Amino acid sequence: MQDNYDAFSDEEDVISSSSEFVDDTDTDDSTGSEVESSQGEELGLNDQVPASGEAQIEGDFERLVQNIRTAGDVSSADVLQREWDFRIEDQDAVFRDDLREASGIGRRKKKNRERRVGPVLSHQVRALIGEGNQAYVDSNLAEAIRVMQEVIRIESRAIPAWTVLAQCYEDKNEPQKALQLRIMAAHLRHDAEEWERLAGQSRALGFNQQALYCYTKLYSLDPTNVDALWDRASLAKEMNDLRTARHSLLAILKRFSHDITVITELRPILIELSDFALCASLYQGAFEHNQALFPLGHALDPSLPGSPPGFGFLELLVLADLYNTMNEYDRAIDTIRKGCRWLQGRAAQKFWDVCEDDREYDLPREEGSDIVQRAGDVQPGYYPLDINARHRLAVSRIKMGDAEEGKIHANVVLVQDVLDYAALFGEIADAYFELDMYADAGPIYEILGADPVTSSLYVLLQVATCRKMQGDLREASEVYKQVVDADPSNNDAKMKLAELYEIMDEPRKALELVYQVIDARKRRPAQPEGTVPEPSAQQGASLFEEKAHIRQKGKPATKQGRLTLAELKGLEEQREKEVLLGYKRIEELWPSILSEDCSDQIEREWMLEAEKMVEMFRETRNLFLTTRHHDFRGMFPRRRRQNETDEERMASRLELIERDKHLRRSKDDVQQQERVDSFRGVSFENWLRLFMQYSFILTKRGEYELGDEVLRHILLSNAYRSKEKQVTIRLAIITCAIAVENYAVPVEQCRKLINAYQFNNEPMRVLLSSLASGLRSTDSFISSTLQKHMLREVRLSDGGVKMPELLKWNNSSQRYHLAVVKSPDDDDVTKGADALEDEAEEGGDVADTTSDKKPLRLPTKNNPMPVTLYGQLCLAAKSYQSAIFYLLHAYDYCPEDPMICLCLGLSSLGRAMQRQSDNRSHLIAQGMAFLSQYRTIRRQAGEHVLPEIEFNFGRAFQQLGLHSLAVTHYEKALQLVQDRDDDDVSVAREAAYNLSLIYVTTGAIPLAEALYRRWLSI
């Protein structure tokens, strides 16, 4: 009895709980967890206390009478029902104590209660009892009832009073009340047979909860009465109270360890409760027990006379199926191999265990099978193996990834008659399908679909899916047509067929199917939330609240149609499989998308699959929480306990006080452990790559607005809070905008990057490269918002070096801000507008600000980059005097930069050309000096930059009107490019165009035409 106790020690003491049979439809998870925790505490007791079931039953009686003593009518069903519904919850511990005593396991909880015997009745009570008996003999039932109620009021433990009162109601043809009163009297008699009789009467009247209670009291009085537990289990099973049935059967199993009959009865209950681990442990324990009884193996055949009952072939298959269900494929294979060897009487041949394959059960050569070549010294055994066991081996091998070995067994199964083994065919096909082996799964599904007996809508849908995944879209659509024709209400098949039509560029057919689905859903009647059955007339006559089980078997009750956590997890698993299937198809099609000869059909299919995944991601609320400073922690995040929250708060306080690096590193490690890096089986890196690819293709197809919307939405996701991910998404937005020449977007996004990376030159380089050339890019470059933004950056950069005390760190924006010092000349309106603009710019940045709490290190040297950029802004806006001012500052910071020298030269020449200039000659000389400095520095880069230098000098002389000098430099630039050995034209086309303008202006038309033919023709 004891050797299998460990397999279900956690379940044994919950045989019966009043919370389970008082109201089995309203129990919740919290109640169940409390009951189980209390049972676990009781199991820890070791000393034994003598059981006293009779005393406890009498205690129940006393509590009941004490509660209803003030009631006017002792037999009132409402009073009894109310009181017993309240006290029934105390019976669970009593029943568990009786089970412990009967099984010899565990310890009863100590009860400081002594057994009470019936009191000695007083003369008054005895006289009243005699008076009541005489009234009953005289058939004066009303008087007898009145007298016996008075007796019960004086002395509630007077057994004759309850008995006569029950008989009176029996004679009045009120059997329900009579049964209640007999149950009250049974508490005082302690007669097991009477409790059994009362249980049968309650069950016959339909009072199932009351019958369960009677069986509980019967078992407490007679622990050897296993029939009571069996009747209790069968009744609970009829009531669909699976937990009570499970507990009762487990109690029987403790007295009759490894009994196959009990385990077989328990198996469907555990499977319905999804308790596969316990079911597998029971079967495994029975298997090991029978192996111990027959160490060398024993051919157990129940059909043979004299064969001992025990663990047989059917139980072996059940155990293998349980392991396959729990994804423990190694144990399933081990069970089939060792179990069949043991059933064949070959348990001593343990040398087969060293073989990783299943050569022990290879088919003999004379059966016409293909010869399987096996490596190693051990030769195949050619032992017989039932087709059902071979099927289990095939499924286990395929699902664990050993497809070659699995195919050997699968091929043996697939040569059988499909009508006899249709279920085995389907499971093998499903195993292939789960591993994306569509080429192997498809033919099996087609075999099943070819016969009307084995065909079904599921099989046809699987056939269509396999063909679709293999690229046979036309054949897949034909199969979907068959499904729709067979079941016009199957909207899923219609939608899948519409997707195929869309891929095959047949939008009319697809749209027609979609309209049919929409119309069908509109016409679908609203489903009622469920009707509550009216209480029957007999329910009030039971001591317990008898509630009908209106929910379906195995489905827990839900409130207002809400899904339970288990159902939500099942739905999430299904969606994860769909995502993985779609993403695999996207990966397979992507190389074809990149090729130059990509067909429109492939591109449409890729876009359709990508759109489904993108929209699924965007519609998931857990990925777009309002609290943006928390990472994505999964679809079902673990809630932190109160002590964990307190610990983290304390750690945060210590970090603020002491700035201890070790504590901060520990906190970051905890946050890293809670962070989830994937969603529905696909990593966030791959999701981001998919978003960018999808947006790029949309932009390429002329749907830039949709692509930009997707990328901007992803910016708000909690999965992409880190600065690196934010930069990647913003660069993708900039790329799409540049493709459609919407240069206002690169300016906007680059400003965000400059805000996020203060005192860093890389965002400014991104801005300049995004606005390389062109009129539209120049208009965006000289926008007033960018000018104000860059001026603030120049002030911050300069203040960080010269007046660092004026810079204040803002922890929320993770930036330094310049403290406002108001002077009499300040314009309050302007300052207010600038401050609002600063807040608006910083408000759009939602990157992770928790990863870097320390303030940035202030610059210690002057940075020429922001000053140069602002000078170039002024230069492009033709504000040459301001440009010269800021560019001279940049020249002081970095005099060896050729770009600064070139910009200073252009600014000086531009200022010299303006009418407001009063020192034109000086500015021209200054400009040429800076150009000469530019040439000196730029030449150090190599000869490949000489055409650029000559072009810039030619452009300067052309602006001054010195066309002869300009022509010399332009021609020299063209000659340098023409003398090159490579195909790089450098600035040759620009030089040829400018030179042609000079030729046309001076009347040299033939020279200009020669330039057109040589350099400017396509």
Structural class: mainly alpha
Radius of gyration: 44 Å
* Gap from first CA to last CA: 95 Å
Average pLDDT over all residues: 78
Q: What amount of the residues lies in strands?
A: under 5%
What is this structure, in a nutshell?
The protein has 1018 residues and is an all-alpha fold. The protein has 45 helices and four strands.
Q: Could you walk me through the main structural features you see in this protein, from its secondary elements to its overall organization?
A:
- This protein is mainly alpha-helical.
- It is 63% helix and 1% strand.
- It has 45 helices and 4 strands.
- Strands 1-2 form a two-stranded antiparallel ribbon.
- A hairpin with a 2-residue loop joins strand 1 (678-679) and strand 2 (682-683).
- Helix 23 runs antiparallel to helix 24 (491-503).
List its salient traits.
1018 residues; mainly alpha; two-stranded antiparallel ribbon; 45 helices
Show the helix and strand layout:
Elements: H1 18-21, H2 29-43, H3 53-68, H4 77-87, H5 91-103, H6 123-137, H7 141-154, H8 159-171, H9 175-189, H10 192-204, H11 208-221, H12 226-238, H13 242-255, H14 260-272, H15 276-293, H16 313-325, H17 329-343, H18 387-399, H19 403-414, H20 422-434, H21 438-450, H22 457-469, H23 473-486, H24 491-503, H25 507-523, H26 565-594, H27 600-618, H28 642-658, H29 661-674, E1 678-679, E2 682-683, H30 684-700, H31 704-715, H32 723-739, H33 744-756, H34 762-770, H35 775-781, H36 784-802, E3 807-810, E4 815-818, H37 828-843, H38 864-876, H39 880-893, H40 898-912, H41 920-938, H42 946-960, H43 963-978, H44 988-1002, H45 1005-1015
Antiparallel strand pairs: 1-2, 3-4
Helix pairs in contact: 3-4, 5-11, 6-7, 6-8, 7-8, 8-9, 9-10, 10-11, 11-12, 12-13, 13-14, 14-15, 15-16, 16-17, 16-18, 17-18, 18-19, 18-20, 20-21, 21-22, 22-23, 23-24, 24-25, 24-27, 26-27, 27-30, 28-29, 30-31, 30-32, 31-32, 32-33, 33-34, 36-38, 38-39, 38-40, 39-40, 40-41, 41-42, 42-43, 42-44, ...
